[in-house]
Design goal:
Elements: H1 4-16, H2 19-26, H3 30-44, E1 49-52, E2 55-58, H4 60-87, E3 92-97, H5 100-103, H6 106-117, E4 121-125, H7 131-135, E5 140-144, E6 155-162, E7 164-169, E8 180-181, E9 189-192, H8 202-209, E10 214-218, H9 222-230, E11 236-239, E12 250-253, E13 255-256, E14 262-268, H10 276-290
Parallel strand pairs: 3-4, 3-5, 8-13, 9-10
Antiparallel strand pairs: 1-2, 5-14, 6-14, 7-11, 7-12
Helix pairs in contact: 1-2, 1-3, 1-4, 2-3, 4-10, 6-10
Organism: Jiangella rhizosphaerae
GO molecular function: DNA binding; DNA-binding transcription factor activity
Keywords: DNA-binding, Transcription, Transcription regulation
């Protein structure tokens, strides 16, 4: 196996153009550099440099070796930097954004776990989204597969898959059923919410209802939407991600046919530019999601 120091000498000679210049940069003697290159050439069985009037230049094989060496050294440096930053999470900041239903239980629990693990790192819950990952204003953004995310410069990490339930007033005529036939709700008033905590793909709901839903209210506020349901003003759809946060005078029931599932993902910067705190939060989120029901 090749030694990393030999690769470093190889790259230095290529960049400096001579053994003596590389020796000065590496605080070595010129003969020591020459021996390193000779040993490397003997190991790979091919000449890596040729003599030129003012030093050396890479051969065709040397050019390939130099490119590979640069890549290997770069990856090693990146690994050292990332592991070092991870080990030093004694201070810092991670900024998280999420949609309302994720903020009812899932995200607060993730923040609690993260704060227990890294008490010196501040966690901020901010308004943003996956686009703010690119601008550097958000470190971790929770999104769903109902979002159209341009993944150029953004990495998407799957977290969990959630189901949806019909939300009815507790006294609704269908609240006593274990499963609500959607066609029975065709004449009901529907309450729309803000994306992605909305009625979902309306084409699927329209097909299940046997016609387009009659949307009477649009409410961006999570508690306001529940209040409208509880007051008997209409019905809506709520994800199981937020099921435990639903008020007692609202009944959640599975639907027939089943409502579309939704995948929740974490949008983060690519590994090369991701902060250590964002990487640590991502681990917390994926661990929490693995045991989430």
């Amino acid at each position: 196996m090749l030694e990393t120091w030999s690769l470093r000498v190889l790259v230095e000679v290529a960049e400096r153009g001579s053994f003596s210049a590389a020796a000065n940069a590496l605080t070595m003697t010129q003969p020591a550099v020459s021996r390193q290159i000779a040993a490397l050439e003997h190991r790979v069985g091919v000449a890596l440099f040729r003599r030129v009037p003012r030093g050396v230049a890479p051969t065709a094989a040397g050019t390939i070796a130099i490119d590979e060496a640069r890549a290997i050294l770069g990856r090693l440096a990146g690994m050292e930097a990332r592991l070092g930053a991870f080990a030093e999470l004694r201070t810092g900041l991670v900024r998280v954004s999420a949609f309302p239903s994720a903020n009812t239980e899932f995200v607060p629990e993730a923040i609690r776990r993260f704060s227990d693990l890294y008490p010196g790192v501040d966690v901020s819950l901010v308004v943003g989204g996956w686009r703010a990952i690119r601008s550097g204003d958000v470190d971790v953004a929770l999104v769903t597969d109902w979002d159209r995310v341009d993944d150029d410069g953004v990495a998407l990490v799957p977290l969990l898959e959630e189901e949806h339930r019909v939300a009815l007033p507790a006294e609704h005529r269908l609240a006593g059923l274990t499963t609500v036939p959607l066609r029975e709700l065709r004449g009901e008033t529907w309450i729309e919410g803000s994306h992605p905590d909305c009625l979902g793909p309306l084409e699927g709901l329209e097909k299940a209802l046997g016609g387009p839903p009659r949307i009477g209210f649009t409410c961006d506020d999570w508690t306001g939407k529940q209040a409208l349901v509880a007051a008997g003003m209409g019905v809506t759809i709520i994800s199981t991600l937020a099921g435990s946060a639903v008020r007692p005078d609202v009944a959640l029931r599975p639907a027939s046919p089943a409502l579309p599932r939704r995948h929740v993902l974490a949008a983060v910067a690519p590994p090369a530019t991701r902060t250590a705190a964002a990487s640590a939060m991502l681990i917390v989120l994926t661990t929490l999601a693995a045991g989430y029901h």
